[in-house]
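Course assignment 3, question 2. Fill in each field.
Student: A.L.
Task: Predict the tertiary structure for the chain below.
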Amino acid sequence: MSTERMPNPAVLVPEAMAALMAVNRAVAGAGVDGGLLALSHLRASQINGCGPCVAGGVHQARQHGVSADQVHAVAAWRETPWFSDEERAALALTEAVTRLADRPDPVPDQVWDMAAKHFDQKELAALLLNIALTNAFNRLNVPTRQQAGTW
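Answer field:
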């Protein structure tokens, strides 16, 4: 495995890290279950291959009481019985938003409508901000080859 290329860019620009963490705190206080936010973070980080964020997502999920079955099976959530309709809607939205370039209609109405059925606008906003923030951290960690477990 390659070594780290440089510290996380947000660590090198402390004001940036402070801003990212402020967004994270705002999302956490917006009324969406912390376990659901952790599952969303974990799933996006798995897609993006971000080791530190996968490890952090697992830790965060366990802190919020997410079951071991869910944590271990989140990558295959469609094929398991362990996720509620609300969690499925959030995970489908997470995958669509994380993979914007993979299809002509990146977030199909079916995915959006299912999420909107389970979350009000403020909660949807928090979920979208959580997905965007996760993707931002993934895009800082992956190119700089940050390693899980080194913090």
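Instructor remarks: Residues 40 and 54 are 11 Å apart (CA to CA). The domain at 14-139 is CATH 1.20.1290.10 (AhpD-like).
Grade: pending
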